[in-house]
Design brief:
8 helices, mainly alpha, disordered C terminus, single chain
């Protein structure tokens, strides 16, 4: 019963985390479901261009992904190692998504070079947000079942983001399109405007995640502080004193990766006997 109540209190924080996946998959869905059509049918680029560009981008992703993982793992800030990169990556990916679906009237070689650069930049900025986002799950709890719950919630919201793009894009694009359109009623301006809307939504979803995560973190810190004070007052033993020293030493020497994990460590050490 006590465990169930504890899980219910944590659930809003888990849902807040999952909301961020909606934003990621708005961008992901636009890129993988509609970019090919936009480049070939709207901009009129040759299909061979994508056949060459795609494997080059995948090869770079194979190099870029582990690099980003190493960078994230070695990041040490007062905001933790995941959140700074998630926010930077989300904002960057939103901007690049908009630029990728905006041609600025370019044509010929300039357009090919521009699209190639934006295509690769999209993959880099998506990785910048995606890797720390999914790597963040273990920082919520040390319980395997709760980690599975967090991952399930995030995947559910991820599917919701994909669904939004799949269902709404064919409906909204013709409404946003002006000028020359394709047989489906899509135009370059329509794609540009819709990509900008999705980019803004991406930032807002991650902004909400950041606020919710911060609240959940403050709650954990408050509980840890209360539990620590109670332990000092009620368990004035050498063992408790040693635990306090060990945790302070871990913070001082930066052995604790971020403050949230530190709060979990406090709770684990000073929980009910």
């Amino acid at each position: 019963m006590k465990k169930s109540n504890s899980l219910l209190k944590k659930l809003p924080g888990y849902i807040g985390y999952g909301v961020g996946a909606v934003g990621l998959d708005l961008s992901y869905g636009m890129f993988y479901s509609f970019l090919s059509y936009y480049l070939s049918s709207v901009l009129g680029l040759k299909p061979a261009f994508l056949l060459i560009l795609t494997p080059i981008a995948r090869i770079w992703d194979g190099i870029n992904d582990p690099m980003m993982g190493t960078i994230v793992d070695n990041t040490r800030t007062k905001f933790g190692k995941y959140r700074p990169w998630i926010l930077i990556g989300a904002f960057s990916n939103a901007v690049v998504l908009t630029l990728l679906f905006t041609s600025f009237g370019m044509s010929g070689t300039k357009l090919y070079i521009y699209i190639a650069a934006m295509y690769i930049l999209w993959g880099m900025t998506n990785t910048m947000a995606d890797i720390p986002y999914w790597s963040m799950i273990p920082s919520f709890t040390s319980e395997a079942k709760e980690r599975s719950l967090v991952a399930t919630i995030a995947r559910t919201f991820s599917g919701l983001g994909q669904g939004i793009i799949t269902i709404l894009t064919p409906i909204i694009l013709p409404l946003l399109s002006t000028g020359m359109t394709t047989e489906k009623g899509y135009s370059a301006t329509g794609f540009s405007r819709w990509a900008m809307i999705c980019g803004i939504a991406l930032i807002l979803f991650f902004g909400y995640m950041r606020i919710q995560y911060k609240r959940d973190k403050r709650c954990l810190q408050r509980k840890a502080k209360i539990q620590l004070q109670a332990d000092i007052q009620n368990r004035g033993s050498q063992r408790s004193a040693r635990r306090i020293y060990d945790i302070r030493h871990a913070f001082k020497c930066r052995l604790v990766p971020d403050k949230l994990y530190g709060c979990l460590l406090f709770h684990r050490c000073f929980g009910p006997a």
